[in-house]
Amino acid sequence: MIQQYGLIGRKLSHSFSAHYFNKKFQSEKINATYSLFEKENLTGIKEWIQNTPSLRGLNVTIPYKTQIINITDALSLEAVEIGAVNTLKIHKDGKIVGYNTDAYGFEVTLIHGREGQKEIPKGSALVLGTGGASKAVCYVLDQYHIPYRCVSRTPTHEEILDYESLLTIDIPDFSIIINTTPVGMYPEITQAPSFPYSRLNATHRLIDLIYNPEETQFMKEGIIRGAYVQNGLKMLYLQAEKAWEIWQSK
Ligand code: NAP
To answer: Which candidate in 11, 23, 46, 65 is catalytic?
Structure first.
């Protein structure tokens, strides 16, 4: 039977994953297909997965990385600690196991120094957004003992900053600024998260998880002030490769 893989999310018209996996299946002569499954909500999703025996694995994207946990039968330790899942492995007996491969992709990005060398960054981080990808980012920052504060439009507890407070905090105290929001993603490419960019300088590092466009407005604001900037492209490839490794493992 031809194996089926795919991506679940709400809006998937510009998916990297379908292109990446179908190209891989073709070039490596793997008898499988990768499809896009746009879902308005997750109602009935577990039954759909279990009634599709050819389905071996799914990637999960906006806005379901947290919600999808409810339909899993087991989680990897990392997924439990992160509280978000971006990869589902579907076993032959219908058991659904959740993993998080975003963390691995982000980790490699984080330790990629300005000159291409491996380097554990020093200083504190500001994480813009509190969704699924933000959870994976915070998990990795914890692993590297990098102190951080998250920023949200609607902070749910006092540790989380709102965007207005960025106008008054000491930005030089935060040397790494990470955009985990979709603001600036294609087609809204002229947008950037609300941030006091004029206070950035060459000591800052800006990481945007967005990969389309490859140079976001958020990154441009850093580039003109001499900051070290990175996009989400490396993370994107690595999280996909890791998902494939999981789907293939016994
Ligand atoms: P998500 O779960 O929907 O979370 C996004 C978060 O961003 C939300 O929780 C929200 O936080 C904030 N946000 C959403 N809309 C916003 C707006 N209009 N203005 C300001 N903040 C907003 O999505 P996700 O899965 O974490 O993905 C987020 C982004 O990361 C996407 O662009 C995605 O493509 C990218 N990503 C890239 C990779 C990669 O491999 N490069 C992997 C994962 C994700 P608050 O409600 O707290 O403000």
So the answer is: 65
